[in-house]
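Key idea: predict the complex, not the pieces.
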Amino acid sequence: MTDHDVRLTVNGVPRTARVPARRLLSDCLRHDLGLTGTHVGCEHGVCGACTVLVDGLPMRSCLLFAVSVDGAEVTTVEGCRAPDGGLGPVQQAFQDCHGLQCGFCTPGFVTTITAYLRDNPDPTREQAREAVGGNLCRCTGYQNIVASVLRAAELTGGAQLTGDGRS
Amino acid sequence: MKPPAFTYHRPQTLPEALDVLAQVGSDGKVLAGGQSLVPLLNMRLAAPAHLVDVNRLTELAYVRATQEVVRVGALARHADTERDAAAYRVLPLLRQATAQVAHPTIRNRGTTVGSIAHADPAGELPGVLALLDGGVEVASAAGRRTVGAAEFFVGPLESALRPGELAVEAVFPVPPAGSGTAWLEVSRRHGDYALCGAGVLVTLDEDRRVAAARAAYISVGATPVRVELTEAVAGQAYDAADWAAAGALARAAVEPDDDIHATAAYRRHLVGVLTARAGRAAAAAAAGVADPDSAGEGGE
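Result:
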């Protein structure tokens, strides 16, 4: 089985890795590229912890082969920070609303919500629940996560008003 | 939970893909969206020696709708099918059912045709294809053939595709004028596999009486189950048809199994309930009026 050269743009930075064909994108990010923010939970597409943005769209990185997305732009939770290196709006919202306890599921929530708010900047509470319906959390009971979605929408809207370009 | 090793092929064109599939034969498996295949690999329930990745065959990334038919190419993602405005205009059922395929994250990658080729009896798209009497365009190095839905679904995760073949297009016929559809499911949570799903197609005559009705069910058999409902509701007004009788007819026609998620008896019960609800909704849609149930039936 030959290895394959994979080129990805991860959080805006061109990266390369030489991987076996069976290397999952989740493992490529963590093991080959050292980006351990992406967490691996169930490894069969159910829990959502490994969700990253591939060419802007949220996808399960445990259900993608790195070689199959050769050339793609990938955004991980590390890429959801603010331009100044501080917390991005979704990350800030999770802190504000106590949206995480152990934090294992959080990277998948942050990426999923980042993409969701880009397309739906002003969700209702019901829509916010639906937005995170594909992600599992075993600590918080989801109430604070839903609150975090709404808070992130506020923060993103505020960012637009102040024109700092974060949204 | 790591996939077994395999030899990876990434053809750039359809003819190249068909050549590779012909070479690898029964040792090969097609990788499109992978949202069903990769879990099977991760859990080591499948171990193909060769994976043929068709994600570069952008010529197959299309949804084409006319007044007669919606054609979905092998690389159209669920999200593409769901959002396609032209397809929705002529065949709302595609969006109704696709919106209930897993979660948006899965629909961003998984493909409509892949879902059909996977032939999961819990899959929505196989049910839609069965309901509409659609078909699958199949290509191989030896040529092309069209397989109708009734022949395509052979058993659980088993289709009529042969080694070396690629399902290149799903063909969804548009029902005649005066038709309406609905797709309803009951699942433990939205996005989970349906405990039972039902699609109903109703065609009305010029007096808005039921001329024909049929249904397809998922998660209640080894393949999607088609049931003709016309005899229960023929000639009845669209807003007063005996959909409970249609439900009884369907309950008698299905043979669901028990599993850890639901008993066979409960699944059979759901067939009756969903037939009645979807029947009313489809008839209302055919008549061009709002579904009388829709206010209270969200979230399923």
